[in-house]
Amino acid sequence: MALDSKIPSGPISDKWTNYKDHINLVNPANKRNIDIIVVGTGLAGGSAAATLAELGYNVKTFCFQDSPRRAHSIAAQGGINAAKNYQGDGDSTFRLFYDTIKGGDYRSREANVHRLAEVSTNIIDQCVMQGVPLAREYGGLLDNRSFGGTLVARTFYAKGQTGQQLLLGAYSAMNRQIGRGKIKSHTRHEMLDLVLVDGKARGIIARDLVTGEIERHSAHAVVIASGGYGNVFFLSTYAMGSNATAAWKIHKKGAFFANPCYTQIHPTCIPVSGDHQSKLTLMSESLRNDGRIWVPAKLEDAKAIREGKKKPADLSESERDYYLERRYPSFGNLVPRDVASRAAKERCDAGFGVNKTGEAVYLDFAAAIQRYGKEQAYIKGLDANDAKLIIKLGAAVVANKYGNLFQMYEKIVDEDPYTTPMMIYPAVHYTMGGTWVDYNLQTTIPGCFSIGESNFSDHGANRLGASALMQGLADGYFVLPYTIGDYLAPDIKTGTISTDLPEFVEAEKKVKDQIDKFINNNGTHSVDYFHKKLGKIMWDKVGMARNAKGLTEAIEEIATLRSAFHKDVKVPGTADSFNQELEKAGRVADFLELGELFAKDALHRNESCGGHFREEYQSEEGEAQRDDENFAYVAAWEYKGKPSDAVLHKEPLVFENIKLVTRSYK
Amino acid sequence: MAKSVLLKSSIAKKVAMALSGLFLIMFLSLHFFINMTSVFSADTFNEMSHFMGYNPLVQFIMQPILVAGVVFHFVMGFVLELKNRSARPIGYAKYNGAANASWASRNMIVSGLVVLAFLVLHFYDFWFAEMMYKYVNVSPIEETRYFHELNHKFGSPIRTGLYSVAFLLLSAHLWHGFNSSFQSVGFDNKYAKALHKLGYTFAIVVPFGFIFIALFHHFNQI
Amino acid sequence: MKLTLKIWRQKNAKAEGKIVEYPLDGIEGDMSFLEMLDVLNEGLINKGEEPVSFDHDCREGICGTCSLFINGEAHGPDRGIPTCQLHMRMFKDGDVIFIEPFRAKAFPVIKDLVVDRSSFDRIQHAGGFISVNTSGNPVDANTIPIPKHDADRAFDAATCIGCGACVATCKNSSAMLFVAAKVSQFALLPQGKVEATERVLNMVNQMDAEGFGNCTNTGACEVECPKGISLENIARMNREYLSASLQG
């Protein structure tokens, strides 16, 4: 099967407008006869559900959380990009488009990214109208900050809780439609399979997580907005419940899975403290606006710090190595995430790490506190030579900008980041890969769409900061609600899809069989036992730096672990009750398949690009080396019974507007 | 529609509690002022008491309103307490209320009931006797009897003691109630802080003032 | 450290529940409270017992999923955080820790420590929104300047994570702080003023219909709120409600 990305013809800046003008529409009266299922209620799913309902479709939403408001989009801290150019620093749609393509290391689809940049401004307008309290300046207008990988300040934010505020905005739009009866919200429900009728997505099988009941739900189209699969690493900044089940189930039913090896490792997370760790906590990238990253310049100092014999403040400026500023003078601490993460790993691997495990670097605010303190003293006409006063004033400014993050750090680490530098280390944070979709955001299954992080589309091999929120809301508010009409236009006479069709019966039976198998397995180890083992394989061999040998081993080890899991997992409780272990078992079963495909994809991609770093393919200075001649394509995998049999399909990436060059932030 | 909503809703009940409470605070202030005069001048006290006792406006308009206010505040308080208890059918095995709220705020029903019990005694002592005197026995008007009656009541150490305990709990009731009333009606502006201080001051000064008056008369007789 | 846990166990919504005691050893101060429960559950599973069900998701203090009434306080003894950010260094060796679900008629128990907080969602359905449709060409976001002071206060109210600690901790099981936070956020913004009257009436009506208790201004909610939502919001809602009632 040849992949048809359905990219409209014409100049890039007109593609979306022309396309919207010519696609099929469903008239408002007919929309009432069409049902749409949306799985996942984060930024993408929530905004899509609300907009589809506003347009008149009957929407059913599903989320495993107890409320749509708790989707993990809520945890995004730093901000959302939009090419508003409110700061007058030369920003434009093209520049956002360019930065995103470059940031993605030239592995994303031009037409999609340009559309994203175009609608980015509408998102801000929409959110402000909804009452999202974005940060403002004293003049009452919206404020911006800058993020990694760009040279303009285009990031809108709400302190360190931008994701929360935007999600609550989408949730409020959903609430309005739930109140009107246009959305039926199913919370504490998990999609466990997709139902195909005549090759088209016509419904889902879901489990009511409270009663354990297996339910059939039909619709004319199914939208998957279930987020990313970073929990395949066990330890990540994802929510504990974040899972790939919906995305993986549609993959097994025919949706190609694209670029699974593109994973973002975020540079600024709180380091692991011990074996009991269940989850990693992110410290917003916005901190790199003001924080300076360093390790000791001398190995003996690093050793002394690890052993507690020296404190970071004991080291003078010349004894510190601000390695990002040294290696990348033009972007400094604001290099993209993949670059910053690898640089931290490189220093720690070389023995310069600063915590007990040697896996941490410093993020230091002392300089920023000094700078802001002096500025404030000047503004307020106070003594700029009073060292104590400067620190007090400066700390107040820093607290106003990042107070909640500092507090969070202190609660977790038990150290005060105002007086001693934060310790940070990279952690799995986002997956750029996902379900393959065409320009309409439709998967290779007709009627099955995939939006937000669950699709692969816009970020290439590395996502820039503050672009995830942008993409989620762009897909949900401004893209999918229109492109889905093109698919649904011929469906206006279909009528309600019956859930008594044999396809529903069969899918339901498979789901029940799988659940019964888990419950009756009588194994010896918990689900977490296997999940942790999977995570360790992934982190060690498919993590920040990969090589052919490790990847080959990983593929084998994961397959072995998978069969051990099915033989030996122990799931207590019953199928027909609230059972969190059973939920986890299903999710980990899918991760154990996805992980193998992930490694397989990483092994096949003989180049380094963005978040995918193969040790064999690097420059003498340790920078990633792309191979545009052989790998400028999207790797879309087709399921063939097991991950090792997956078949590769290539969608060539054509760059007509941006020249492929080596990415440099020096 | 608005009216029915206003009367039925939780916020309306809360506002009604607040307003009746504030009304009782005003009454209490007046009562305090009059009683305080007894410490300085028996004559002034008698004069004022007589005015309050025989002015028709006070007797037939303000007094019934006051009684209605007390009854309303009490009944509503009780209704709310029952409703609030039913909002948590299964209680906690361990509940550390002191960690996050003052004793006074958590025990308004306790302090309220003690104050109510005191009011019953108080009515029996003064108001009931007064009604008997004026309207049942139709005794002659005697403008100077009040100070003497007051002094007589505080002769008993038990009564004086009970009186003092009741006012300690009134202090607790006011400690929370005064500011709570303003919060309930939505008072929140630049004067809020000053008002808070006033509230706490009132909650101390007035009840302890009453206790002082009682002790003053008690010990003056020994 | 060594601990004795006293945990509420309840099979399902209809079953009777009771406190069950579990001794637990090998807990470190760097563990979060939920990681401590993970250790307990891993042990229970290995012994062939059913693990303790508890709600949790993001484990970074923002989703509002975790709950737990710990030693008599919502989210435990620490301040300004939900349970997932509570660390075991707040406890000491030999401690007895009571762990109970958030309790209120409007938060029925689903299982063990898991409660149903959908009453909060229904209050939001009744009015927790501004009625604007998604549109490709709305007014530019900077058309309406909003004083920073108002925007900041609206933001402070909007940081509510909907965890329900206010209800759980309130001796009256009142949801006023939660509802007030949403009403305030919109009441402070020009966009939200248009529907302010209807919004506050509808949300308060729904709140009452859900069976929450009455606010008596004890202030416990503000103290226990992991996001420090201020009581000012309740005063504001009272004001909004009164003026809406008088107008309507």
TrEMBL record, chain A:
<protein>
    <recommendedName>
        <fullName>succinate dehydrogenase</fullName>
        <ecNumber>1.3.5.1</ecNumber>
    </recommendedName>
</protein>
<feature type="domain" description="Fumarate reductase/succinate dehydrogenase flavoprotein-like C-terminal">
    <location>
        <begin position="531"/>
        <end position="665"/>
    </location>
</feature>
<dbReference type="InterPro" id="IPR003953">
    <property type="entry name" value="FAD-dep_OxRdtase_2_FAD-bd"/>
</dbReference>
<feature type="active site" description="Proton acceptor">
    <location>
        <position position="337"/>
    </location>
</feature>
<dbReference type="InterPro" id="IPR027477">
    <property type="entry name" value="Succ_DH/fumarate_Rdtase_cat_sf"/>
</dbReference>
<dbReference type="GO" id="GO:0008177">
    <property type="term" value="F:succinate dehydrogenase (quinone) activity"/>
</dbReference>
<dbReference type="GO" id="GO:0005886">
    <property type="term" value="C:plasma membrane"/>
</dbReference>
<keyword id="KW-0249">Electron transport</keyword>
<keyword id="KW-0472">Membrane</keyword>
<dbReference type="Pfam" id="PF00890">
    <property type="entry name" value="FAD_binding_2"/>
</dbReference>
<keyword id="KW-0560">Oxidoreductase</keyword>
<keyword id="KW-0274">FAD</keyword>
<dbReference type="InterPro" id="IPR011280">
    <property type="entry name" value="Succ_DH/Fum_Rdt_flav_su"/>
</dbReference>
<keyword id="KW-0285">Flavoprotein</keyword>
<dbReference type="InterPro" id="IPR036188">
    <property type="entry name" value="FAD/NAD-bd_sf"/>
</dbReference>
TrEMBL record, chain B:
<protein>
    <submittedName>
        <fullName>Succinate dehydrogenase</fullName>
    </submittedName>
</protein>
<keyword id="KW-0812">Transmembrane</keyword>
<dbReference type="InterPro" id="IPR011138">
    <property type="entry name" value="Cytochrome_b-558"/>
</dbReference>
<feature type="transmembrane region" description="Helical">
    <location>
        <begin position="160"/>
        <end position="178"/>
    </location>
</feature>
<feature type="transmembrane region" description="Helical">
    <location>
        <begin position="198"/>
        <end position="219"/>
    </location>
</feature>
<dbReference type="GO" id="GO:0016020">
    <property type="term" value="C:membrane"/>
</dbReference>
<dbReference type="InterPro" id="IPR034804">
    <property type="entry name" value="SQR/QFR_C/D"/>
</dbReference>
<feature type="transmembrane region" description="Helical">
    <location>
        <begin position="103"/>
        <end position="124"/>
    </location>
</feature>
<keyword id="KW-1133">Transmembrane helix</keyword>
<keyword id="KW-0472">Membrane</keyword>
<feature type="transmembrane region" description="Helical">
    <location>
        <begin position="57"/>
        <end position="82"/>
    </location>
</feature>
From TrEMBL, chain C:
<dbReference type="Pfam" id="PF13183">
    <property type="entry name" value="Fer4_8"/>
</dbReference>
<dbReference type="Pfam" id="PF13085">
    <property type="entry name" value="Fer2_3"/>
</dbReference>
<feature type="domain" description="4Fe-4S ferredoxin-type">
    <location>
        <begin position="151"/>
        <end position="181"/>
    </location>
</feature>
<dbReference type="InterPro" id="IPR017896">
    <property type="entry name" value="4Fe4S_Fe-S-bd"/>
</dbReference>
<dbReference type="InterPro" id="IPR012675">
    <property type="entry name" value="Beta-grasp_dom_sf"/>
</dbReference>
<dbReference type="InterPro" id="IPR006058">
    <property type="entry name" value="2Fe2S_fd_BS"/>
</dbReference>
<dbReference type="GO" id="GO:0009060">
    <property type="term" value="P:aerobic respiration"/>
</dbReference>
<comment type="similarity">
    <text>Belongs to the succinate dehydrogenase/fumarate reductase iron-sulfur protein family.</text>
</comment>
<dbReference type="InterPro" id="IPR025192">
    <property type="entry name" value="Succ_DH/fum_Rdtase_N"/>
</dbReference>
<dbReference type="GO" id="GO:0051537">
    <property type="term" value="F:2 iron, 2 sulfur cluster binding"/>
</dbReference>
<protein>
    <submittedName>
        <fullName>Succinate dehydrogenase/fumarate reductase iron-sulfur subunit</fullName>
    </submittedName>
</protein>
<dbReference type="GO" id="GO:0009055">
    <property type="term" value="F:electron transfer activity"/>
</dbReference>
<dbReference type="InterPro" id="IPR050573">
    <property type="entry name" value="SDH/FRD_Iron-Sulfur"/>
</dbReference>
<dbReference type="InterPro" id="IPR036010">
    <property type="entry name" value="2Fe-2S_ferredoxin-like_sf"/>
</dbReference>
<dbReference type="InterPro" id="IPR009051">
    <property type="entry name" value="Helical_ferredxn"/>
</dbReference>
